[in-house]
Write a structure and sequence with these properties.
This protein is an all-beta fold. It has no helices and 28 strands. Keywords: Repeat, WD repeat.
Length: 328
């Protein structure tokens, strides 16, 4: 049984375009922030106390912004646009020019993934110029680390996630491809560790919980595919989750590992218990496709929010099951 669906606690308007990507920064400083990237090339920095945009950055020549993030313990914003550029911004000085950029050569929609490997050093993974290649570089030096290309023809790289396993081995990367395949890569060895056919259609999005080595992916179909890594780093497909309507733009697991949110082409956000993928609620507010979802990183669990960005140019913010809820 679904619980009664709540209403948004508030909405943000004025982005001026479809909201492709959202990212919270609420754990440091006095001002909780939400970053959004729009289809018109603008990055908005929303102050969640005033519920207004305190800064607007135009950095991708009007091209759609498909990914934004912040680098830990710095005031550096990182953004990716359809102009084939990844830009780095120093927010501390209030400047509006990018302090550095990386040319990706990719015309697709694959969002970058960033991993901090040591203080001040990070790996950035992105889809490359060739159809199936993933490039990984070191920041801030921009030194190439490796290029990952599968042996088989799998089509475009659609989505990637880079992480550092607890086992002490080098970074791993999971990627979803156009033919519906998932591949697990060992970055240090530049080798493929395992492969699984998760979907019959292109994988549109994936999320991966590094604490339990479990992931879920979505496509244009009416199913979510659940999978995990065993101790030998084999991708193991688990049960599918059937959706009421087809099409998933993005997936996100809350930081406490209790909730999964999906952004639906049917204008809805769906919530599942992450442990058993049990449906919990359907959030209805938007009048067009939901393109992005993100959970806030507030230190106080009672303040945690879920944000959803839509093709209708609006961002909805929701307070969801923050205290002691049974979300299995």
């Amino acid at each position: 049984m679904f619980r009664p669906a709540p209403s948004p606690v508030y909405t943000l308007r004025g982005a001026g375009g479809p909201l492709n990507t959202l990212h919270f920064s609420c754990h440091g400083g006095d001002t909780p922030l939400l970053f959004s990237g729009s289809g018109k090339g603008a990055i908005h920095v929303w102050n969640l106390n005033t519920r207004r945009a305190e800064k607007i950055v135009e950095g991708h020549s009007g091209s759609s912004v498909i990914w934004v993030s912040t680098l830990q313990e710095t005031d550096t914003l990182i953004s990716q646009g359809r102009d084939m550029q990844v830009c780095l911004w120093d927010l501390s000085e209030g400047r509006s020019e990018a302090m550095d950029s990386v040319w990706t050569g990719s015309v697709g929609f694959c969002q970058c993934s960033v991993l901090e490997t040591s203080p001040g050093t990070r790996l950035l993974a992105f889809a490359g110029q060739q159809t199936e290649e993933i490039k990984i570089i070191e920041l801030p030096s921009k030194t190439p680390v490796c290029t990952l290309v599968p042996d088989a023809k799998l089509g475009m790289v659609m989505c990637i996630k880079l992480w550092q396993p607890d086992s002490g081995q080098g970074p791993l990367l999971v990627a979803g491809y156009e033919d519906g395949s998932l591949l697990l890569w060992d970055v240090t060895q530049r080798s493929m560790l395992s492969q699984a056919k998760a979907h019959p259609e292109p994988i549109m999005c994936l999320t991966f919980d590094i604490t339990c080595l479990r992931g879920v992916s979505g496509s244009s179909e009416d199913k979510l595919s659940s999978w995990m890594l065993d101790r030998q780093n084999n991708l193991q497909l688990q049960d599918d989750v059937t959706l009421v309507n087809p099409g998933v733009s993005q997936l996100c697991v809350r930081g406490d590992g209790k909730l999964l949110a999906s952004a639906g082409w049917d204008h809805r956000v769906r919530l599942f218990g992450w442990k058993k993928l049990r449906p919990l609620a359907v959030l209805q507010y938007h009048t067009d496709m939901v393109l992005s979802v993100a959970f806030s990183d507030h230190q106080d669990p009672r303040q945690r929010l879920l944000a959803a960005g839509s093709k209708d140019h609006r961002i909805s913010l929701w307070s969801i099951y923050n205290e002691g809820a049974d979300t299995g």
